[in-house]
Specification:
This protein is of the alpha+beta class. The chain has six helices and twelve strands. The chain has one domain: Deoxyribonuclease I, Chain A (4-Layer Sandwich).
Length: about 260
Amino acid sequence: MKIATFNANSVRMRMEQIYQWLVREKPDILCLQETKVQDPDFPAEPFREAGYHVVYRGQKTGAGVAIATREEPRDVSYGFDSGKERDEARLIRLKVAGVSVINTYVPQGRDITSEHFTYKLAWFERLRKLIDKEYAPGDRLIWCGDVNVAPTELDVHDPKGLKNHVDFHPKARAALEKVRAWGFVDVFRQLHPNEPGQFAFWDYRVATNFTKNIGWRVDLIFATKPLAKKAARAWIDRDERLEKNASDHTFVVAEFDQ
């Protein structure tokens, strides 16, 4: 089984790249975030042409999630099942080929003094409660997406300088860890335990960030232990970040033996 995650930063703008990547790499599952498109305008047909089923939920501006699968998915659901904000454009779940998948685009948080950061921390709490309710650590479960938190000092280019950033603040890392500790393994880190500089996001705002590898690892693939022990390979497709009109993120991939 081959699963990938990609923050597209507009699925319509990256559709040609995504199509070509699907045809070449043939993942069983591709999770997308920040699709930035309302459902009536989602470009579903290219996915079908590439041989994929695709489910999605978006909104007028920002956010948006989708999952493309080679086999027809079932038990598809969107957002949280309780609370004031369901956040359907940030959370999508399904089951395919005997594996449950959770795809998330976690709120970024803006600033640690803002209500948006408080909402981000609460979002992780809600996710943990949802997982507690719907799954067990012994299930074959994948949680992936842009979680907008770098887990460890290895996962950012400047740990000291970024200690108060919303995506590396101790409270954000603790919130992520609380969900991970439920029973997830960071598949990339399991296979690359001590490798610094392994990033999948490089901010657009400084043109040299990619060439200087000033990046972050916030695009993650977690697996429960029954799947993690079968993880054979995990990699970041840096070359795709060099493609014309590329996203500021790139594809992260994990492969599992059956």
